[in-house]
Design a protein that fits this description.
Elements (H helix, E strand, L loop, with lengths): L1 E2 L6 E2 L22 E2 L13 H24 L1 E4 L7 E4 L1 H25 L5 H24 L6
Antiparallel strand pairs: 1-2, 1-3, 4-5
The structure holds zinc ion.
The site of zinc ion has 8 residues, from loops.
């Protein structure tokens, strides 16, 4: 499709004049319509079912871990080879917030699948921000002293 070089208005084929800004494309005029690829049709994000289930499992575990953290005043951090460790004190509270941010991030991933609107950019921004917030808080929580005194 061709658009007006002056105002980006979409032009009819072989237009001699821009209907919007009246730029003249006739002979002797320096205005020439420019070709632009037509916009791609919008396709909402799809999240495969197994991924959605995976997110859901993490959400449930995350909420359970955060609830346990609030209840017990300590947060359990699982380790790869079992065992894991318990973080207590102020770090535990930072970790509870980190887990809830992580849960919000995963909830948004699932919502994105069911949200058919053309707003993927909003999810992208939310995803990036909550991801950085999660890792930031997580690391701060892990390395906070378990007691202030
Ligand atoms: Zn124009």
């Amino acid at each position: 499709m061709f658009v007006c070089p002056n105002c980006d208005f979409q032009l009819a084929e072989k237009a001699k004049l821009c209907p919007s800004c009246k730029a003249d494309f006739g002979a002797g005029s320096s205005w020439v319509p420019v070709y632009q690829d037509p916009p791609k049709p919008f396709a909402p994000n799809e999240v495969p079912l197994n991924e959605r289930i995976g997110y859901l499992v993490f959400i449930v575990f995350g909420i359970a871990d955060a609830a346990y953290g609030v209840y017990a005043g300590q947060v359990y951090i699982p380790a790869k080879r079992g065992g894991g460790s318990h973080i207590q004190g102020p770090g535990a509270w930072v970790l509870v917030v980190a887990i809830l941010v992580g849960v919000a991030n995963l909830v948004a991933h699932i919502l994105d699948h069911y949200d058919r609107r053309d707003n993927e950019r909003v999810y992208e921004l939310f995803n990036t921000r909550t991801k950085y917030a999660f890792w930031g808080l997580y690391i701060i929580g892990l390395f906070m002293p378990s007691k202030w005194w």
